[in-house]
Amino acid sequence: MQNSLFYIEAETCQENKARQNVCGDACESRKLKDENRFISVLSDGLGSGVKANILSTMTTSMALQFTAKNDPLERTSAFIMKTLPVDSKRQISYSTFSIIDINCFGEATIVEYDNPDILIYRDGNFLELSKTGKSIKRPDSRDAIVNYSKIKLEKEDRLIVVSDGITQSGMGTHNMPFGWGESGLKEFIHQCIKAQPEISALGLARKIMARTKANDSNNFKDDATCQVIYCRQPRKLVLASGPPYYKNYDCILAERIDTFNGKKVVCGGTTSKIISRELKRQIDISINTAMLDLPPIAEMDGIDLITEGILTLGKVSSLLESIKFNVIKGDGPAEQMTKLLLQSDSILILAGTQINNAHQDPNLPVELEIRRNVIKKIAHILEDKFLKTVEIEYL
User: Which of 5, 118, 274, 386 has the fewest CB atoms within 10 Å around its CB?
Assistant: First the structure.
């Protein structure tokens, strides 16, 4: 997600409580492309397992829908509080929620109920938010306090949103009898960023989760969720696949690739030969990368990755559909391309429109889609599931 000031990288890591099949926390983010807005919600369902998962997922879904429709956050909070039941024994709501709504000017509105405080890290320090608490009647007629705050975000700001499975990790141990706590989490975040000032949102979230697991003796005692939102300069990538419709556009394609400021991926044998010819650079095949289902990658000066065309794109599409939380296993051509796409924020796809007759062969597998359709599918998944900014330009 990119606004006029910076790119918003948002990544989530999540683990189930030990011996539970599902996570009782829910975290979902959405970008509203037309409005240049970013919305994220984290909810912690009471207890663990399926019941907690249903409650947190319902809370997250409601909060996202109402916030996206520009309903006042006070009314959204009130509706959620009045809809969710209250535990009769402990007198607490069945789920918590943290809502973040960032507009195109970098202005963030934050709503918090019963989750650990959202942390905002800027220039080596954690900012203190000025919060306004408002009382909302719960279904049991008791008052609940929901906190509201606003802040103008800046480039290099990081927002860390966690469930209490993070802050309460280590509770009862000799070193942390009362748990890791907010202070322990803050100190760990500070040390991570000090050691790696440009650490990605995913990298920081993974480190926090790894430390949480270590605090609990490598056995999560509660559902744990960590989302990191990082405001920064976008990482750019260009993906070229397919020859241009007109042959005299070959030189334009090669120049666009050569002068692009970011990562460069070429997908397709014909496309790579065009760029090799126009830029007068040799292509070398890397035999060590040969896979059973895909041809090997190739190498060329100035290009980060060269792969075969339609088969590789098809597998990339499948990988993007199936993976969760950006975890890619393997190092084949499709896996390498998928990793590069997920490590990038702003992606330009240069799609050639010349038809390759081989792709119309009825003897080829049915699932072999025409390149153009596969590219549209990849762009859709990158935008909706991974919140990337994607532009397709047809040549």
Answer: 5
